[in-house]
Design goal:
Layout: H1 2-14, H2 23-32, H3 37-44, H4 48-57, H5 59-85, H6 93-103, E1 113-116, E2 124-127
């Protein structure tokens, strides 16, 4: 009889609004999850949009996320250098390139395709790869 009452109390406690997550909890999760908000939300068992709003509104959390993302960019850049220096690691090149294109835009890792007039029916795509940070 006492066991069934305990189960009912546990069920009552688990219903309703989830526990509020502190900025410190989010900051720790941002570091653990390397700045990926969906992973933070899963870790803290809250909605991803809630995490996104909290991070956007807080300068502290925004700086923690930026720092975590910058550390991952450093890892990706180091992996790229390793691949350039050692041809044995070229199997991960596409993954590193994808990560740098998506997350490394502020460091100049963008991919532009420019089409020029050509004699053929189709335009000729030219891929310039990474673009240096040029100030105008």
């Amino acid at each position: 009889m006492a066991a069934s009452k305990a189960k009912q109390q546990i069920k009552k406690k688990s219903k309703g609004r989830p526990q509020k997550v502190s900025d410190d909890d989010i900051a720790i999760a941002l570091i653990k999850c390397k700045g990926f908000l969906s992973d933070v939300a899963n870790l803290l068992k809250v909605n991803a949009s809630t995490i996104s709003k909290r991070v956007t509104k807080s300068e502290f959390l925004t700086s923690i996320r930026t720092e975590a993302e910058d550390k991952m960019l450093d890892v990706a850049e180091n992996a790229l250098v390793t691949m350039i220096e050692n041809s044995e690691h070229n199997d991960h090149f596409k993954s590193v390139k994808f990560f740098l294109k998506c997350k490394g835009k502020k460091r100049g890792y963008i991919e532009n395709i420019i089409t020029l007039n050509s004699t053929e029916d189709k335009p000729l795509p030219i891929n310039f790869g990474t673009e240096p940070d040029v100030k105008t």
